[in-house]
Amino acid sequence: MEQFTRPLAGVKVVELATFIAAPSCGRYLADLGAEVIKVEAPNGDPYRNAAINEGRPTGDLENTSFDLDNANKRDVCLNTKSPEGREALEKLIARADIFLTNVRYKSLIKSGLDWETLKAKYPKLVMGYVTGYGEKGPDKDLPGFDFTAYFARGGILGTLFDKDSSPMLTMPGFGDHPVGMYLASGLLAALYRAEKTGKGDMVTVSLFHSAIWAVSTMLQSAQYGQPAARYPMSRKDIANPFTVAHKTSDGRWIQFAAPAYDALYDRFVKALGREDLAGDPRFFPQANLQANLHEFYGLLVSEVAKKPLAEWCAAFKAADIPYAVAQTWDELLEDEQAWAADCFYKMKYDNGNQRTLVRPPVLFSDTPLPEYKRGPYQGEQTESVLAELGYSGEQIQAMLAAGAACHPEPRAN
Hints:
By secondary structure, the chain is α/β, with parallel strands linked by helices. It has 18 helices and 12 strands. It has a 7-stranded mixed beta sheet, with helices on both faces. Strands 7-8-9 form a 3-stranded antiparallel beta sheet, with helices on one face. A two-stranded antiparallel sheet has the order 10-11.
């Protein structure tokens, strides 16, 4: 009976999507109790094969990245270019509440899966669509990944680094996962209206726009042309050095967060062990600091370098000034607060290994945490899903034999 406590119990989702952004949305909807059926082509979701890029074992038996974005789904493998496979997909969409995809729109039009075609047949359907650059404009049909549309074109890679260094290293999922959650929020609003009015809608989220939203505070400020918003910049030129990470004597980085500079200045320099700087007119108030940024930055670097991380953590905790250790991923996987706050869960794999996976960051007070299942193997539920659509055993076997559907064996790690 536990499944009926989930907010989206009874909602049916068809996912025709690859890689991370759209599938991560589907995974979150599955966590909320929706029945999410992932439709894969015979050659599979390419993200199943990204192991070398991410330093993981190859194969299907232990695929933490795929499971991160596909847990709790069912999977049917269809060749939608064949008449039989396309018909099966149509039957799935016909009974769905949500159709989720990141297929390029030209291909959707060609295959009759564009919004104009679908809404004419299924007025109550809600469609979720992930793009690289949006639905309109000269670049709307460009392929989009978070490396390009989010990090680079979206104003992150070219700005958020010390200008005396190199642009940050990008990583998969950094932009994709927020996009998945943004899309989920829109889909839930559209689903609510569809239930109330019988009228569906298409919800679109792009990687490009999501990056612009992520940098919007400083992006808007850049219009005024002031030095504080002229990124990339040197660390020495940040208008508030209390919001910069500094290196300790044992080689660790500690990030401070005192954006209210004037209110916390005296408390900060006292925690730093420099009570003599309290009220110093060179550095206080912040308006005076701007003419002396490099001097004060150098002073902070020198002072923080005198003590090890543990001592600084104790001092700034006692002063109630926000700070955090710049953790490595190995440290984060063991972070006591992360485990206590249900950020992680353990996944037991078919090969006997147990790994740590990450939960989506939205939790409920009166809804139990989901019991996670690994992401489905390619076509793992092909036969059962087709049977639910009304196909006979003979028809299913004929589709498998003809290549209209498939159920390949999982590859060993």
